[in-house]
Amino acid sequence: MTAHTPVSVPPEMDKLAKTASALGFEIVDIGSFLDLLEGQADQQRSALLALRACATDMTAANADATASLRALTERAIEAQQDIQTSVALVREVGEKTRGVAVWVKSIRDRTESVGETLRAVRTNNSQIASIAAQVNTLAINAKIEAARAGDAGRGFAVVADAINALSQKTGTAAKQISENIEGLTGWIGDLGREAGTVAQDAETVLEQSGHTDTALSRMETTMQAERDHRLKFTQQTDRVKDAVDRLRPAVQDIETTVEKTSSGIESTNRRVESLIDTSEQIVQMTAGLGGVTGDARFIDFVQKTALKISAALEQAVKDGRINIGALFDDDYRSIPGTNPVQVTTRAVNFLDELLPDFQEPALSFDNKIVFCAAVNLDGYLPTHNRKFSQPQTRDVVWNTAHSRNRRIFDDRVGLKAGRSTAPFLLQVYRRDMGGGEYKIMKDLSSPIYVGGRHWGGLRLAYSS
Length: 464
Prior knowledge:
The structure is a single chain. By secondary structure, the chain is α+β, with helices and mostly antiparallel strands. 71% of the residues lie in helices and 11% in strands. The chain folds into two domains: 61-249, Methyl-accepting chemotaxis protein (Helix Hairpins), CATH 1.10.287.950; 294-462, 2-Layer Sandwich (Beta-Lactamase). The two termini are 27 Å apart.
């Protein structure tokens, strides 16, 4: 393999080379924009899928809520009817209790009237008893006088005996009446006191029934208001259902549109990638024909450095510093706790010793150079420049930018750089700097061979 050496060519060839290089930049920039659009389309598609799922869940939830609300409304209506019945019963019982209370109070009033009558009867009976006693005394006196009168007073004595007997009977009757009046007075008094107690209880019942009536009335009003609210809520759920029913086909239409757009973007992206390949081939051909651009010196440098690395690797195998199997080892073993993931092979330690002698000086070749690193056919980059080989931290964004060694870069640019067998390959790409930051770069690579076997390529990345 020989390094690229520019020769004298027509100015038009130089212009073509420069135009091809500029075209490559523009196409990559468009491709980057399409990548962004594709990512956004994927996000929109995912969001729409989530929205459709939410709409489906909302429909089901709304249906469940509507069914539950209707069942609750039916039970509430039944409860309201029961409350109305209870209110009517309580009011009816209250009216009857009020009537009983009035009747009990009238009994108490009547017992008081009867008590007064009995007291008057007892007074009159006492007077009768007193008169009977006086009559009895008069009869005894009359009987004595009749005895003194002899035969003349005999008729009067008979009358006196009759009067005496009558007065005694009257006294006995008065006594019995007094005893009965006393018993009746006691019974009437007990009845009056009991009637008074019952009347108080009746008044308490009336007061409580009034409170109950008021509470039930408030409950009835509340239930009525709740029923009105439930009816309004049912109307709202119906509106939600209508809205969701209208939303679902709209979401479906949007999803279909996004699918078509996403498919179009993917197709366009593939065509742009094809254009990128074509523009790279144009750059390759113009450079091969001697076209001079600002890349010529970098092309020459990367080819020469790749040849030096190839020679150093072949010599190391000959010297037994590493065997060919270890050098081409592709059994990648993840390094625990790394993020982004770093991997190792049997050749890593050896390459960490050998490659820096060729890669580090490249950073001083031109201040446009960002990095110089060798990758194998899989895009695996075992040994990076020291500034990009920092120990990882817990900050993933920082690691992405500063811990780029021992990682596999199997993107389009990384794989093409590792697998290209052309004398050189010039690519334009967006480099992921971490944290959502990208930078348009040129990636120049040249193949590395060991004993005639293609190991990979040396990448030289620089800004335009």
